Amino acid sequence: MDRSDRLERYAELAVRVGANVGRGQLVEVRANVEHAPLARAIVRSAYQNGARYVQLNYSDNHARRALIEFGPDEALNWSSPWSLRFLHSLESEGGASINIVGDPEPRIFAGLDGAKVGRARPLHYHEVWGRLVGEKAVNWTIIACPTPGWASQVFGEPDVERLWNALETSVRLDEPDPVAAWSDHIDHLVERARLLNERRFDSLRYRGPGTNLSVGLLPSSTWHGGFSNSQAGRRHIANMPTEEVFTSPDRRRAEGVVRSTRPLGLNGALIRDLELTLHDGRVVKVTASSGEDVVRAQMAADPGAQQLGEVALVDAGSRVGQTGLVFFNTLFDENATSHIAYGHGFAFAVSSPTERQAGLSQSAVHTDFMVGAPDIEVDGLTAEGEAVPILREGRFQLD
Amino acid sequence: MDRSDRLERYAELAVRVGANVGRGQLVEVRANVEHAPLARAIVRSAYQNGARYVQLNYSDNHARRALIEFGPDEALNWSSPWSLRFLHSLESEGGASINIVGDPEPRIFAGLDGAKVGRARPLHYHEVWGRLVGEKAVNWTIIACPTPGWASQVFGEPDVERLWNALETSVRLDEPDPVAAWSDHIDHLVERARLLNERRFDSLRYRGPGTNLSVGLLPSSTWHGGFSNSQAGRRHIANMPTEEVFTSPDRRRAEGVVRSTRPLGLNGALIRDLELTLHDGRVVKVTASSGEDVVRAQMAADPGAQQLGEVALVDAGSRVGQTGLVFFNTLFDENATSHIAYGHGFAFAVSSPTERQAGLSQSAVHTDFMVGAPDIEVDGLTAEGEAVPILREGRFQLD
């Protein structure tokens, strides 16, 4: 396969299919400095596709480390008025956003106080961004960029080419016509969401080693998958890859224990063997073999951070799952297997305003963690108490 | 000499002596992505020296190239509301700013329309920044970071180490105690400015090959050199290196021809053999063997761009000049030899508000170009018409 135009093809996919940038749109490109080659290709493609202005926002984890290590405490979760002003423009214009992830230096926050690492995130900025997502104000996508540091974390050596290959499979860039392949794939996820919506389950039940959890759904919780539509009617794909169907649950009804099945990268720390105990919808116990303090600090951000905001189902047909890799990256790992998020729920996933008010979690936090595996069974429980298998041995059961 | 702590020592000099960051200040660090290692050291040092928050603003010339090549025309000189909001915070808080220059890819805008390259600069943003500088609202400094691309331009090969050595000499990092060396150097420039202020020249006269220019000064034009004081009383060094004494002239009185003695990097283009003809203070003719269109486009930005905003004298004792190098970088080349700027004048350099109103150039542009050489004589003319030698064979004559 010819790799010379890889960045251009990927950028084109992110701009035209992922965010679906429209003519005359304000476009944000978020990236780490280490992602510059891909970020530049995306900026170019965005202008070629008619962007009125592209704001390239580089972040730098070294600067964040310096903030955590030497900055004043009150700066840790401070949101600058200029960053909020930018979100205001994105909202008022109905802009587009392309966010590039892929940790350039997974060990960069090693040795720092985990509670400070957990807090080091502009809180109000993320609250506003969460609201924009919930209200569908922006057409956006998240993609990833391989780096030597990330490749080392996945493979034990900086084999960037191998990570690119896994990424290309996962985002269907290995297809002769990636745009057509995405169109088919989206149809498939849309159908899966339709099947779930048809059933109107009252709750989900997860069972397997270390996990026995039930999560209540709201009567008007709706399942989504594949594409999203912005207010302005721009059809976009919020995550590339995406293999999930998801909804937001009733924040008041979650009961039991859930054990994470994959490590989780969080604010630059790595969380291993996370286990949450929930009662009356609220996380009452957190344990992890590493990074426990980072999770605790994050959950202390606001009351909503201790409640569930999302449940998502991914089956064994996932291209990401089929790579057999642990990516140490949520965008990939959450699309390899089923996941749950604590924190903010999606306004668009609960159609009744009354139920949204009463039952949807609101938070500046939204953290997905992986709970799926071949030996985890997921059932849908009807209001009458009937249990309907949804996932068995990792396979989706409804049709 | 031990190079292992070079970035840390340089960062410390920029933060403590250059910008002189104070406890609790908002600090901007501006850099190209290619300057990341130095930018990170500066962010770290700024927090260690008490910054309340450091905003690291990375720019990327590849993104700017994409804007020029594929973006809509109206975006070229557009200033985003969020970038203006940032300047507003810098002003209202009395923040600090450290700007890292040093062209990473000198040929990046090759092949583009020079008029568009000249216009591709956020106009209103630079107007506001010029006002903040004039009103001394911010304690700021400009420093440079060697890159392979810049080293290739200077030496014909990417000898970054050699460029670092020239930089270390120029900014006195080769001294055992750079802070003490800067203190002596600043005293020397302050004394030179005092000698010029004592004389109260009515105008300057430049004579040499291709140059015969007189530039009128205002009665209350004051010479500055070495350090600046912000409104809040923070003593800072606006350029590192700095070897100049400078003032702002009467925008209405400049007459004759001036030939630039060094190439000039401008918006990523290289201007060679620039020659300006002035009449009644205004540029009436521009020629150059390369980049003429870039200069013309810049001068078309506003009326003030065609008038002179600064005259600066540098003598042969300059450490930058003594390297014998052409740096293709204004921060260095303007401190190797005398220079003049077209565009914005400095409000603080004209003490009478009435004269400022009538005689000080106002523009979103401020472009320095080099006019000094051993065979260029500079005289001060008194109101009575007496000519007093200021520079002969590159040496400062007043005492």
Notes on the structure:
- Two copies of one chain form a homodimer.
- The first copy, chain A, is of the alpha+beta class and 399 residues long.
- The first copy, chain A, has two domains: 165 residues, Thermophilic metalloprotease-like, CATH 3.40.1830.10; 193 residues, no CATH class.
- Chain A is 33% helix and 25% strand.
- The first copy, chain A, is built from 13 helices and 21 strands.
- In chain A, strands 15-14-11-6-5-19-20-21 form an eight-stranded antiparallel sheet, covered by helices on one side.
- In chain A, helix 1 packs across helix 2 and helix 4 packs parallel to helix 6.
- The mean pLDDT of chain A is 95.
- At the A-B interface, helix 2, strand 2, helix 3 and helix 4 of A face helix 2, strand 2, helix 3 and helix 4 of B.
> Residue-averaged pLDDT of chain A, rounded?
95
Shape of chain A: globular
Number of domains of chain A: 2
Question: What is the number of strand segments of chain A?
Answer: 21
Give me the side-by-side strand order of the main sheet of chain A: 15-14-11-6-5-19-20-21
Strand content of chain A: 15-25%
